[in-house]
Every structure is written in C-alpha cells, then in structure tokens.
C-alpha cells in the first residue's frame, strides 16, 4: 500500500479512526483520477474523513502533492485495486458513502471482467457501507448506469433510486470536463444500503510472517521449481524462477499467486539455519498475507523436503 501511516496499522480491516485520530464519518472515492473531486470535497468538509483508492501510481503522486499543498489531514490514499482494498481494509458497516465518478465502462464483452461493478464488488459494498449509507455513481453512459442498477437490485440489500440526469458535480472532474466538451449527458445512480451483512475477507487480521521449518532441502527439486503450478478453486500459485546466493546458504524463489482474482508477485526465502532450513515470505515482500501466499510458503516447504 502507498498510503496511510503503515506503522499505525496493526491488523486488517484497518481501524480508520486510529489512522485519522477521530471518529468522523468515512467517505471513500474509488478511481479519483486527477484527485480534484476528492481534494475539494475534503477541503470543504473537514468534519468527514476521506479515503481515495486508485490503481494509478501517477494519480496517487499527483493527489499526494495536492494534499500536502493544502495541508489536508482528513484524506488518506490507497494505491490498490478497489475490489480488494474495499473488502480487506474496511470493516462491516463502516463507510458512510462510496463515490465512483465516471468509471471506465469497458464496453466490449471480452473486457467485461475488468468492470468495477461485478457481483462481488456489490457484495463488498453491502457489507462495508453503513446501514442507510450510499453508493453514488456518476457516468456519461446510460446503459452502464442501467447495468449497474440491475446488479444492485439483484443483490437485494439496496434500495436503488431512479437513474437521473444531472448538470454537473459539485467539483468538476477531469473526465466530466472531457465528456462535457463532447456534449455528452451525465447520469447519477444512488444505491442506499438497507440491510446488515458480513462478508468473508482474505486477510485474517494477523501480521505473522508465513514460515515453515524443514529438516533438509532436496536441491534437485529446488533447481527445477521454475514452472511449478498449483491451482484450486480460489487459489493459484506459480513459481517463476529461483535464485541462489553464491555460498549456497540462501535461496530466493520468485512466486506469482492469485486469490479470487487478486494477483501478487513476491519472493520466498529458503535459508540455512544452524539446524535445518527456514522457508519464509521474504522480509521486504510487500505481499499481503493472503491464503494463497501462506499456501505458497507451505507448498514450497513440502516440495523441497521431499
Ligand atoms: C475514467 S477514469 C475517471 C477518473 C476520475 N474519477 C474522473 O472523473 O476524472 C477511471 C479511474 O479509475 C481508476 N481505476 C480503474 N479501475 C480501478 C480499480 N479497480 N480500483 C481503483 N481505481 C481504479 C483508473 O486508474 C482511473 O484513474
């Protein structure tokens, strides 16, 4: 995570009141792009806390500058896929509003899997929003708003208001200006949460570094680990390569793993100890300790000991 004061994070979901140092209500913007909407909203309402989630590092750098220049202490930024971040970093019933302005509609059916609003994301919203909390979507594409509305109705946890045409947002976004220049209409969809729901999260809330102790290492297996693949319903593990320290006391295994569509890449260490070997997630690995990461450590340990 680029972002929040990580030293203050002791477990997941994050205790945002501790990060902000108050109990103000939480508003999240997903895909803030240029950051103008989030920054202006935060400037005008300092009795709310704001979290922006973006996958673009450039956008995160840009907004960080604005936050610094305006000396805002009620905004935090997360560089992450919102489908993962919203579910893993926010508790049940903790967010007052989630705002999504002009998301990419991914119109081609072969790209539909990239769309933000899928059943799982809406399920996440049904958990993390407060009861009566709102999802607010603006878009220039009517069919997209209709498709999202349908998904909220199918979820049964939301009261969905009619899609309405709007003139402009309180603070213009980059994409709003772009579509305005092309003369496009703008639509607003509001879904209000009406139930209480809890969802299963990948991160277990502990920070323990996944590790296994083994008595011996099968070096032939170690040399041929690259290309190893293991897959089951929710998890996939792929070993890309192995690297050796010259004196043979330590090995690095490069791993890609996937939990329910969330992909991470990291190293696992195999280190010679006084007695036996230690297999563990590399200290500097930024990987979240998801089930697939824990299974990768466990699998490598088992493979090498045989
Ligand atoms: C079309 S732009 C809109 C930007 C801004 N809201 C505006 O109105 O100008 C969509 C933004 O969403 C971000 N994005 C796309 N998928 C995302 C995801 N899964 N999680 C977080 N951000 C995402 C993109 O990086 C991009 O900045």
From TrEMBL:
Entries under InterPro entries matching the protein: SAM-dependent_MTases_sf, tRNA_(Gua-N-7)_MeTrfase_Trmb, tRNA_methyltr_TrmB_bact
Record's keyword terms, sorted: Methyltransferase, S-adenosyl-L-methionine, Transferase, tRNA processing
Membrane spanning stretches: none
Binding residues for S-adenosyl-L-methionine: 29, 54, 81
EC number, UniProt record: 2.1.1.33
PROSITE patterns, per database record: SAM_MT_TRMB
Pfam family membership, one: Methyltransf_4
Entry GO CC: tRNA methyltransferase complex
Domain of life of the source: Bacteria
Gene3D superfamilies linked: Vaccinia Virus protein VP39 (3.40.50.150)
An example Gene Ontology molecular-function term: tRNA (guanine(46)-N7)-methyltransferase activity
Family: Belongs to the class I-like SAM-binding methyltransferase superfamily. TrmB family.
Biological function: Catalyzes the formation of N(7)-methylguanine at position 46 (m7G46) in tRNA.
Protein name (Swiss-Prot/TrEMBL): tRNA (guanine-N(7)-)-methyltransferase
Organism, scientific name: Petrotoga halophila DSM 16923
């Amino acid at each position: 995570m680029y972002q929040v004061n990580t030293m203050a994070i002791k477990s997941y979901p994050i205790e945002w009141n501790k990060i902000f140092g108050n109990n103000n209500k939480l508003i999240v913007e997903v895909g803030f792009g240029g950051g103008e909407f989030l920054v202006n909203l935060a400037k005008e309402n300092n009795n709310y806390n704001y979290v922006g989630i973006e996958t673009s590092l450039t956008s995160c750098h840009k907004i960080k500058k604005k936050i610094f220049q305006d000396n805002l202490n009620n905004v935090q930024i997360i560089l992450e896929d919102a489908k993962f971040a919203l579910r893993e970093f926010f508790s049940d019933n903790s967010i007052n509003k989630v705002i999504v302005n002009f998301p990419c509609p991914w119109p081609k059916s072969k790209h539909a899997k990239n769309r933000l609003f899928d059943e799982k994301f809406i399920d996440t919203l049904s958990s993390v929003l407060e009861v009566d909390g709102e999802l607010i979507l603006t878009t220039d594409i009517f069919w997209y708003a209709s498709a999202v509305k349908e998904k909220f109705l199918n979820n049964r946890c939301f009261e969905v208001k009619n899609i309405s045409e709007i003139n402009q947002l309180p603070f213009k976004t980059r994409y709003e200006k772009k579509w305005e220049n092309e003369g496009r209409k703008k639509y607003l969809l509001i879904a209000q949460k009406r139930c209480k729901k809890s969802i299963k999260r990948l991160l277990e809330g502990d920070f323990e570094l996944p590790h296994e102790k083994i008595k011996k290492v099968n070096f032939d297996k170690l040399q041929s680990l690259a290309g190893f693949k293991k897959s089951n319903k929710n998890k996939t593990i792929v070993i890309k390569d192995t690297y050796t320290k010259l004196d043979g006391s330590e090995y690095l295994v490069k791993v890609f793993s996937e939990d329910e569509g969330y992909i991470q890449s990291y190293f696992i260490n195999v280190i010679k100890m006084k007695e036996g070997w230690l297999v563990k997630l590399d200290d500097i690995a930024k990987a979240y300790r998801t089930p697939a990461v824990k299974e990768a450590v466990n699998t490598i340990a088992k493979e090498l000991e045989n």
